[in-house]
Amino acid sequence: MPSPKARSGGAAGSSGRYEFMSLSRSPPPPALQRQGSDPTAARLRAADSPTRRRGSGSSTASTSSTGGQQLPEEDCMRLNPSILGIALSSLLAIDLWLSKRLGVCACEDSSWGSVRPLMKLVEVSGHGIPWLVGAAYCLYKSDSAAGQEVMLNLLMALVLDLVLVSIVKAVVRRRRPAHNRMDMFATFSVDRYSFPSGHATRAAMCARFLLAHLVLAAPLRVLVLLWAAFVGFSRVLLGRHNVTDVAFGFFMGYCQYNLVEALWLSPVTLQSMVGQLE
Ligand SMILES: CC(C)=CCC/C(C)=C/COP(=O)(O)O
């Protein structure tokens, strides 16, 4: 990413740090003044600035003075983006770069394209449908009250996960990586968006659920954790997601389990629900 200093053509003042000065506060260096007189170029630069992209308008008046020349607010550009803005832009750039590098199974022609079918199998193992069908089947087959209680709550957790992920995807609307091929089976319309990864939320939540409610031997517990991690990692390898989609998905799924515990349907709750139905 070229530094603001490089873009300004090297016309630094004596401090050498004019590139972070706001045009609305003091006269710009000559190079910027020249560009500022061209409203089209100014608009293009303004549209390109991080603060502009975030849509955070200036708190100053609707016009700004540039060396005596009055410019409409839309033609002004803030050259002092916040540290947080720079950090977020950098993180986003690293995320996109890393995700592209890691998307080695994004299609058959990719460098690891031959393992794509295996990755798609991992994808199915974290898909919502097998989990919903599996939990419903275990609920139906379970002959103990404790088993039924656990399976019913797992079903509730899975539905809750689908709802919460759909809401976040619909609000954030981050597009999937350009190298992704949209050949996933059984998706909702919001699944064209990538933030957060629904597979990662489900994997994290279900892993916590299984570890907390099933009596598993140590090797199986490790296997559950490895499975969850691999489901998340495979999303990036398949090119379905950026790294941050999966990282946030894990975090969200981890937190969702706390919500499931808080909303836990106990036998008493169930009995009163059944009683109300009768
Ligand atoms: C149709 C049902 C019941 C669930 C959809 C599951 C699905 C395809 C989620 C998308 O996951 P990613 O966000 O990880 O791509």
UniProtKB/TrEMBL annotation:
The keyword Endoplasmic reticulum applies. It is found in: Endoplasmic reticulum membrane; Nucleus inner membrane. One of its GO terms (cellular component) is endoplasmic reticulum membrane. Keywords: Endoplasmic reticulum, Hydrolase, Lipid metabolism, Membrane, Nucleus, Transmembrane, Transmembrane helix. Its main location: endoplasmic reticulum. It is a multi-pass membrane protein. Residues 1-17, 56-68 have a biased composition (Low complexity). Its EC number is 3.6.1.68. GO terms for molecular function: sphingosine-1-phosphate phosphatase activity. Signal peptide: none annotated. It is an enzyme of class 3 (hydrolase). Residues 150-261 form the Phosphatidic acid phosphatase type 2/haloperoxidase domain. It catalyses: (2E,6E)-farnesyl phosphate + H2O = (2E,6E)-farnesol + phosphate; (2E,6E)-farnesyl diphosphate + H2O = (2E,6E)-farnesyl phosphate + phosphate + H(+); (2E)-geranyl phosphate + H2O = (2E)-geraniol + phosphate; (2E,6E,10E)-geranylgeranyl diphosphate + H2O = (2E,6E,10E)-geranylgeranyl phosphate + phosphate + H(+). It comes from the Eukaryota. The chain crosses the membrane at residues 150-172, 209-230. PANTHER family: POLYISOPRENOID DIPHOSPHATE_PHOSPHATE PHOSPHOHYDROLASE PLPP6, SPHINGOSINE-1-PHOSPHATE PHOSPHOHYDROLASE. Belongs to the PA-phosphatase related phosphoesterase family. This is Polyisoprenoid diphosphate/phosphate phosphohydrolase PLPP6.
